[in-house]
Inverse folding.
């Protein structure tokens, strides 16, 4: 049983890998809210651009804008009880909405707009997901959704004449943005891991210092009774009518208190050594 407990304690003390770091619910909620706001504002700009470009339907952007409003309403309603699971679910739905719109409108923009720069919104999405994703894996999947959907679309669904018309180095730029997004995401959660580990160590040191203070307080409380008992024992031993049984009991009590004091001294030294580490 003790071996199981010690192994469980060792497992619990192992540092959490950066990809398993859990942000606070409020931070995750805030990041998801910002992502949804980006979606809403971006789709408004998209619809404005579509109005000035012939041959492109504004329906996908309008649907994504409506989805953003629904998700934003959910975030506002549930803001007092935020949760990590709710944050990453809403973030994932928002990503799916945006990536779908971009996938549907990219070919139309490529054919109708001569000044269209390929996959600019997808590149921006890779960086935004890295900066505000509420959880590592949902951020990673969001970056892959923006990056890989553009690569697949360009390589397999853009006809050769359209690719030559664009005269671009794609898909390498979008791949570079996807890689940059993944590296930024790793750096962000690695930093969060180090900050959480530092906070844990500081809390542990604070608890150790409080425990050491409690031990010192117990020792101080024990010193006075020890002195009183020792003084009383001496008086009884030198009295004319010694009461040997009582004296023996007092001696045993003194010995017990001394043993407790010895244990406390040993623990105090251990605590000081751990706190220095």
């Amino acid at each position: 049983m003790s071996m199981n407990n010690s192994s469980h304690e060792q497992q619990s003390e192992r540092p959490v890998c950066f990809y398993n770091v859990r942000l606070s619910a409020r931070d995750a909620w805030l990041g998801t809210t910002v992502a949804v706001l980006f979606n809403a504002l971006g789709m408004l700009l998209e619809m404005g651009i579509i109005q000035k470009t012939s041959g492109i339907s504004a329906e996908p952007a309008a649907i994504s804008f409506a989805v953003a409003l629904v998700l934003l309403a959910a975030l506002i309603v549930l803001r007092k009880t935020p949760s990590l699971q709710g944050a990453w679910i809403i973030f994932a739905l928002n990503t799916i909405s945006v990536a779908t719109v971009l996938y549907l409108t990219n070919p139309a923009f490529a054919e109708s707009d001569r000044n269209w720069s390929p996959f600019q919104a997808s590149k921006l999405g890779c960086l935004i997901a890295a900066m505000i994703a509420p959880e590592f894996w949902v951020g990673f999947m969001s970056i892959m959704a923006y990056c890989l959907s553009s690569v697949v679309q360009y390589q397999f669904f853009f006809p050769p004449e359209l690719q030559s018309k664009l005269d671009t180095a794609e898909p390498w730029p979008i791949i570079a943005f996807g890689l940059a997004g993944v590296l930024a995401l790793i750096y962000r959660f690695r930093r969060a891991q180090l900050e959480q580990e530092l906070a844990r160590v500081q809390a542990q040191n604070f608890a150790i210092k409080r425990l050491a203070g409690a031990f010192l307080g117990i020792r101080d409380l024990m010193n006075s009774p020890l002195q009183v008992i020792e003084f009383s024992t001496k008086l009884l031993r030198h009295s004319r009518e010694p009461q040997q049984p009582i004296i023996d009991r007092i001696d045993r009590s003194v010995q017990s208190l001394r043993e407790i004091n010895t244990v406390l001294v040993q623990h105090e030294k251990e605590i000081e050594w751990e706190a220095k580490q």
Observations:
- The chain is about 80% helix and 0% strand.
